[in-house]
Amino acid sequence: MKKQKRKYLIFIIFIVFIFNVNTNLDAQVKKSAFKIARVKYSGGGDWYNDPSAEVNLLKYTAQTTNIPIEPVYEYVDLASDNLFQYPVIFITGHGNINFTDKEVRNIRSYLDNGGFLYIDDDYGIDEHIRKEMKKVYPEQEFVELPFSHGIYRSHFNFPNGLPKIHEHDKKSPMGFGLFDAGRLTVFYTYETNLSDGWADKDIHNNSPEVREKSLKMGVNIIVWALSN
Questions:
Q1: Total domain count, the chain
Q2: In which domain, by residue range, is 9 found?
């Protein structure tokens, strides 16, 4: 009987050990999985629009790459230290944007320490984001990236640069960058509206072909940000 009890106790300890190991591994995998944070900014602009966009992009990234992904919608306050938990943050919207002095310092520190900011003009933020990013990088102006830049071929090939996803002013899409010691830290897309193509298909009624182009370019942004 004692031997049976001892065997049973050893079995229970073994099960608990395996459960704890698996739980810890799951926690570690979840902690290391890639997520994007939507930037919550002040000034009255709709920073929160199309919350399905990042989730769909992350799911597509999981399907087309081997990057560990957690496909969730999360947002971050630029004044918070939580900013530094995300390798990529994302700004979009239609209207005004305003960064406080503390947010400017935090963004600059985030970018200087390896972070990456992607900005997508959803029509209406161009003049505002240029003004606010000048506070972050007063020594720089946005530079248009050539079609030969690696971000256009980091995973999928876009030899002609950005795809046109949503029509605003019948202008060609443009991709701009800001840099730190030669590293692209800020990528700004204008007159394309990639994130409209990431949103649920019934929101903007984009064709499957257009949505796939936008998702593929989104994957390129993620791959570039994580590998450079």
A1: 2
A2: 1-30
Give the domain CATH number at 68. 3.40.50.12140
**pLDDT, tens digit (0-9, with 9 covering 90-100), for 147-197:** 999 999 999 999 999 999 988 788 899 999 999 999 999 999 999 999 999
Whether the Cβ atoms of residue 69 and residue 33 lie closer than 8 Å to each other: yes
Q: Which helix (H) or strand (E) holds 76?
A: strand 74-77
What gap in Å lies between CA 117 and CA 131, rounded to an integer? 16
pLDDT at 1: 44
Residues 6+ apart with CB under 8 A from 95: 43, 44, 45, 46, 124, 125, 128
183 with 221, same domain? yes
* Average of per-residue pLDDT values in the chain: 88
How many CB atoms are closer than 10 A to CB 64? Answer: 14
Q: Is residue 93 domain-shared with residue 190, that is, in the same domain? A: yes
In this structure, the answer to whether residues 74 and 13 fall within a common structural domain is no
Per the structure block, which two tokens stand in for 71?
């496909």
Same domain, 46 and 21: no
Residue labelled with tokens 């390798």: 87
Residues 6 or more apart whose CB falls under 8 angstroms from that of 176 comprise 142, 143, 144, 145, 187, 188, 189, 190
Tell me what the mean pLDDT of segment 123-134 comes to: 96
For the chain, what's the residue count? 228
Pairing of strands 183-190, 116-121: parallel
